[in-house]
Amino acid sequence: MRRTDGLIVGIVGATGMVGRELIALLESRHFPIAELRPFSSGLSPSSIRFKGLTVKAPGLSTLPLTACDVVFFVSSDAVARKHAPSLAARGVWTIDDSAAFRLIKNIPLVIPEVNAAALRADRRLISSPNCTMTGLAVAGAVLHRDIGIRAVRLASYQSVSGAGKAALFEMFSQYSSLSDMRPGHDGRAPVLGAGTSSVLPRAIAYNAIPQVGRFGADGYSSEETKVAAELRKIWSAPKLKVSVTAVRVPSIRGHALAAWLTLARPITLARARTLLSQTPGLVLSRAGNYPTPRSVGGKNPVYAGRLRQGLVPTELALWIASDNLLKGAALNSVQVAEELRRRGWLKPRKGR
Predict the structure, then answer these.
(1) Would you call 131 a catalytic residue per the annotation?
(2) What pTM value is reported for the model?
(3) Domains of the chain by range and CATH?
(4) Strands, E, within 22-76: which ranges?
(5) Which entry of 30, 131, 144, 185 is annotated as an active-site residue?
């Protein structure tokens, strides 16, 4: 579909969960689109809805993308590695949500509320960060800037949508097969076996799995390693000590984090609350209240609560929750594009 003004926008992975959230955000935030060029997540053609119309989403073809002003990649690492660099080299602003380029030195890894200064006019390939790390990066940004954070201990409780549509369907199927289970005649809860799963490492229904990604030789999962490395890059803190335990839990959408932050110097809870209240993109709950994955689902900001003193004067404990499909993925990519427009860098290309 085409208008006479605005940008030509490509989306690779438009039919996936993040892709559909991205399209809805582009529409609701009135991003100036002259023509939308969506491509499906797989090889088979499909379609999406945009502004009340059905728009075809064929299998990926690179030639139509070269005429775009901006292309969003919300697909696999392999697809992004194959196509994103060449598009950026042609002058197309390319915003990638995969893990393919996040830790490459000269490729900006950007959360606009935290490190928009990392954007450069001459670097057309931009990476969007891990959905788990994003909540902490936003919540701790002002604390890190004003006080300094020396170490982070983090436990994540990650929704099944973070593992993709197949994992969600598998969870629903597992719950359906267990739907008739009730306490026994003696009132005792049923005992379930380990269960089987073809998508996640264990059955997720009525369960929690302390593995997100593959384990390395050091015992940390790939998710835990990524979160630590990306947080250091986002905060420009190469010496930051980070220890992460990533857990998959049977929620549909929304990731939650329990964080313990070691600061450079002691801080009162009142001062910490003031700084968190001034943090862009963060909503701090009043004392005694807290967010949950269900309460933040479909909402744009990062939410935090349960602020309390740690075991030592320099430690703060905080609970964080955010929608992994929005701020953790689609919304952040759209905000990056909006920042490029504000700077006058993202505009219709001459001779496209």
Answers:
(1) yes
(2) 0.94
(3) 7-129+329-342 (3.40.50.720), 134-177+198-323 (3.30.360.10)
(4) 33-39, 46-50, 53-57, 70-73
(5) 131
